[in-house]
Amino acid sequence: MQSLTMWLIALFFLNTLSSCDATKKESAIATAEAAKEISPSRSSYSINAPDKVWSLTSKLKEISGLAYHETKKELIAINDEMGVSYTLDINTGEVISTQSFGDKGDYEGIEVVGDMLYVVESNGTLHQILSDSQSNVIPTRLKGANDIEGLGYDAANSMLLLACKGKPSIKSKQKLKKTKVVYGFDVVAQQFKEEPLLVIADSTLLQYCNTQLSSSNLEEAMIKDYKKRLKSFAPSAIAYNNHDSSYYLLSSVGKTMVVIDREANVKSLDFLDEELHRQPEGIVFDSDYNLYISNEGKYGVAKIFKYNR
Hints:
The chain is an alpha+beta fold. It has helices spanning about 1-35, 200-215, 220-230; strands at about 50-55, 65-70, 75-80, 85-90, 95-100, 105-115, 115-120, 125-130, 135-140, 150-155, 160-165, 180-185, 190-200, 235-240, 245-250, 255-260, 265-270, 280-285, 290-295, 305.
């Protein structure tokens, strides 16, 4: 009788555990379904479902920019506090080599142009790093108030893209209030363009968001939260995608990604999973148009997320 009692008790606990597992499974499914609704108008990349994730060395905990070397098929990263670039294995994220180019600073973006690297500081100063490790410092009209955090490259126009997280204007008479702005640097003429290449009005972003959300099944509280997040949009990274002729702007503040065309028309808007993307600071495409996003190690280890085209 005692054995039977013990058996019944064990059976009870097993059923309880099975019930808990089923509840967890249902919760996971619900979470996955909710994730599909995180973005009212998703880009062609499943931004909250990466195909691969790589944890990075502690030396890149403050990773602030990401680039792709088309000839060598490698990723190149930058740490925002040190004048050192890190070449990474594109299949593992492991460091292959490093290259020093300057003293300590506030380095926010990196790009590859031919055999040269370009690195930008938050005050807009560019560092041109040649293949023989020599470097040139190139001042621009941008200042610390502009807070440049994104550096991309539009190869079709031989133009570096400098995205302002802070003040959009560089001239007192420029009427750029309540906008997000991207300036250009012509790498052939070695000339900074004083007129913005791209101007995105805050109202345009909100209008696009409203249009998409109005046809969604999201709860009112979630819609309100998305609008609040979008209002804080401030580019922390930018990349040009030749495949769809679009600019991808990533904002760590608010965890959003906006895709626009050459006329700054909004093509798509993604809200990133805040638990997945703790501090997204870098974005780049490889030659097969796979997407890579780097996250600083805000709460631990820095990571790179890969999204297959």
